[in-house]
Every structure is written in structure tokens, then in C-alpha cells.
Amino acid sequence: MKFNEKLLKLRKEFKLNQSELANITGLSTPCISKLERGCNPNPSKETLVKLAEFFNVTVDFLVRDNSPLLLSETQNSYNIKFARLNQADQILVHRLMDRLFEDYEN
């Protein structure tokens, strides 16, 4: 699956329109549209990182043709809810998760 196809599939799985994805990632709606249509075959590293971070996947996953697309419904649900939090609440969630992972590793 090509990058533009993966991006479109991920966005639809997250039940977002292009404008919502643009607002969440800090990209423009025309940028998302061009990426999904394959009009920009070489997106910047910054663009790839923003998308990968939001979708909780690696940049490698996004750009490699042979990477399968596997996200559970639970992962999708949490990612969508997280993306809709304001920045302060996202930071709190990250801190909580870091603390939980520290406790788990010890």
C-alpha cells in the first residue's frame, strides 16, 4: 500500500475529515488533500513525523509500500479521543502514561 493510500485509510478509520486532520496535526487542509491524492510524493520529514505521531505509527510504516495496516478499534478510539484533547490535557495524559510505564517496568 502506498503512502497516500495509507494516509487516506488511516484518516477514514479515525473518522476524521481532511480539515479535522489538518487542525489536529497543524498541517493545512490543502496539504492533506495533496498527500492523499499522491500529488506530493515526497512530503517533508516534519510532515511525516506529525502524521506518524498522531496516528501512533512509525514514519517507516507510512512510507514503506509493504507495511501492513494494522490498528485495533481500541487503538483507533483512544487516538481519536486523545487528539481531541487540548494541549494541556494531552501533556497530562503523556505524563500519566509515562508514570504507569515506569511502574510497569519496575
What does this 3D model show about the protein?
By secondary structure, this protein is an all-alpha fold. The chain has one domain (3-105): lambda repressor-like DNA-binding domains (434 Repressor (Amino-terminal Domain)). 70% of the residues lie in helices and 0% in strands. It contains seven helices and no strands. Helix 2 (18-25) packs across helix 3 (29-37). The longest helix is centred in the C-terminal third of the chain and has 19 residues, at 87-105. The radius of gyration is 15 Å and the shape is globular. The model has no long low-confidence stretch (mean pLDDT 86).
Fold topology:
Layout: H1 3-13, H2 18-25, H3 29-37, H4 45-55, H5 59-63, H6 73-83, H7 87-105
Brief summary:
With 106 residues, the chain is mainly α. 70% of the residues lie in helices and 0% in strands.
Categorize the overall geometry: globular
The radius of gyration over CA amounts to: 15 Å
Mean pLDDT: 86
Low-confidence region ranges:
none
Sheet having the most strands: none
Helix content: 55-70%
Can you say what the CATH homologous superfamily is? lambda repressor-like DNA-binding domains
Q: State which percent range the strand residues make up.
A: under 5%
Q: Helix/strand/pairing class, anyone?
A: mainly alpha
The appropriate CATH architecture is Orthogonal Bundle
In CATH's first tier, which class applies?
Mainly Alpha
**What pattern of helices and strands is seen along the backbone?**
HHHHHHH
What is the count of structural domains?
1
Rounded to the nearest angstrom, the distance between the terminal CA atoms is 39 Å
Distinct helical segment count: 7
